[in-house]
Amino acid sequence: FLARPYWLKLATCFSAYGFLPLYIILLFAFLVGWNGVRPLAFVFAGVKLYALGFYHTMEYTSDTPPPELLPYWAPEGPYLIALALTLYRMRTPGPFSTHPKSKVE
Which of 26, 52, 66, 93 could form a disulfide with 72 if both were Cys (CB 3.0 to 4.6 A apart)? Predict the structure, then answer.
């Protein structure tokens, strides 16, 4: 980590520590079933997708691109799956509602 470019250190630390309050809010919302977190979850997902795109674009176009793809992308897999599952959960207006969906006949 310390041998990486300065911008990469900043991006990694900001992602870990700058987004920490949002991680805590989302975790709390998922634990207690707070439906009001839906707009924040969408904004956060958009921010994270943008950050991931920027990070990987810069990583591959830098002077020190990743030498091997599997070790590079292996940690990203679970992260991307969690982001996709979060977006899937937030697809309805009441993502934590226990009421069954009404069917229109």
Answer: 66
